[in-house]
Amino acid sequence: MTSPTISVIGLGYIGLPTAAMFASRKVKVIGVDVNVKAVETINRGEIHIVEPDLDIAVHAAVTEGFLHATTTPEPADAFLIAVPTPFRGDDHDPDLSYIEAAARAIAPVLQAGNLVVLESTSPVGATEQLAEWLAAARPDLSFPQAAGEASDIRVAHCPERVLPGKVMQELIHNDRVIGGMTPKCSAAAVALYKIFVDGECVVTNARTAEMAKLTENSFRDVNIAFANELSMICDKLNIDVWELIALANRHPRVNILQPGPGVGGHCIAVDPWFIVSKTPDEAHLIRTAREVNDAKPHWVLDKIKEAIARHLDANPGQNEADVTVACYGLAFKPDIDDLRESPAVEIVKALSQTHLGQVLAVEPNIEALPVELNGIKLVRQNEAGIANVHVLLVDHREFRGRNKPSQCVIDCRNAWKN
Ligand code: SAJ
């Protein structure tokens, strides 16, 4: 593909870095988002999310004229869809409404020869569903599900696999799984990604590409669940789980991940459900891992209540309303500002609803607390020293290696010294 125009639909944690990466290779990029504020911010050359080096890339892309953002799709050669795919309800059924809305938005500007790539993490069959929505909206064009290799429009799934916090490096260096609906669809997608991807573009079909992404995140979820379960077992047996894992990991074929307050983010805590909801009778281990990780915040809450009780035992003149609890970290993982699906937020919120005393939150990556945390006080690290119970939930760089506070301590990430 020589000097195409690329449209990226959804300018969030994946879409915006991807748009900036194409633009950095002097390709014209049209970014589309329904969020007017995000569009205005990007067009000023600024960013609305925290990701290392993204600000520089977006500023350069916009000022050099290779990237502009808009709320309405414009014609392009290739469309990349990077919108959220949450789940809904207690059954955790995948919610494809954002993909459907993106399909309806780009359908009017599609032209024969265009490539449409779904990047959003999706349940198996979503790419075919996307092609159906596009075909229904544009009966004048042919699509791979009916026309095969002769189709006017090429459709592929190319799941994003980058790690928040390392997006700008991983976008370039990670291998990409490219699942075209036909071999020609795959070839068109490979040519597109090769504009900036140094890693290998490995070709498969759309369904396998969808499942590959879900498998990667489920693998990690199951392994974190193992670590989280170990941490609860060790607590009961009075064994230091961190020492235990370090010892076990000295075995050449053992590599246990780290326990924490639970699993958060929009990916690992969500994607395994896309497998479970399609194959509930087969996906026992994957479901159980989700349940173990989802239960961990409740276990941490119980530990905080025990610590409050210990403090009261040691200070008979006080009652619960006198006990201040400081929680360190709200993001879903270290060194980012992203509070989505964060177990730390879940814990702090539940604590503030039941605890009679003050709850303080230390989160160096945000300026203000979300409304759901009304009643909690956002403070700097040095202001949290007055608390009676200290709970480390996220091992941000500002906390790592610091001395443990002298009062009651729960360190969910083994970040504090001593
Ligand atoms: N976590 C632990 N213990 C660990 C590792 C992680 O408790 O040893 C927790 C984190 O604190 C966090 C959650 O798991 O709450 C998820 O964090 P993560 O760093 O494992 O993953 P994400 O969600 O930031 O990114 C994942 C990545 N997938 C894999 O590593 C297989 C990334 O490559 C994907 O692109 C991303 O999901 C995505 O968008 O799907």
Query: Unreliable segments (pLDDT under 50, ≥5 consecutive)?
Result: none
CATH topology value of the largest domain: Rossmann fold
The multimeric state of the shown protein is: single chain
| Morphology call | elongated
Give the ligands present: ligand SAJ
Strand content: 5-15%
Q: Taking all residues together, what is the mean pLDDT?
A: 96
Largest sheet: 8 strands, mixed
* Count of strand segments: 15
Q: What Rg do the Cα atoms give? A: 24 Å
The chain-level structural class is alpha/beta
**Span between N and C termini?**
57 Å
Number of domains: 2
**Count, helices:** 13
Main sheet: strand order: 3-2-1-4-7-8-9-10
Order of helices and strands: EHEHHEEEEHEHHEHEHEHHHHEHEEEE
Fourth-tier CATH superfamily name of the largest domain: NAD(P)-binding Rossmann-like Domain
User: Regarding CATH, which class of the largest domain?
Assistant: Alpha Beta
CATH architecture label name of the largest domain: 3-Layer(aba) Sandwich
Describe the 3D structure.
The chain is α/β, with parallel strands linked by helices and 418 residues long. The chain has two domains: 5-199, NAD(P)-binding Rossmann-like Domain (Rossmann fold, 3-Layer(aba) Sandwich), CATH 3.40.50; 241-411, Rossmann fold, CATH 3.40.50. Helix content is 39%, strand content 14%. It has helices at 15-24, 36-43, 54-63, 97-106, 126-137, 144-147, 167-173, 183-193, 206-237, 241-248, 271-278, 284-314, 343-354, and strands at residues 5-9, 28-32, 67-70, 78-81, 87-88, 93-94, 115-118, 154-157, 176-180, 201-205, 325-328, 359-362, 377-378, 389-392, 408-411. It has an eight-stranded mixed β-sheet, sandwiched between helices. Strands 13-12-11-14-15 form a five-stranded parallel β-sheet, covered by helices on one side. It is elongated, with a radius of gyration of 24 Å. Bound molecules: ligand SAJ. Ligand SAJ is lined by residues 121, 160-164, 216-217, 220, 224, 257-258, 260, 263-265, 267-268, 332-333.
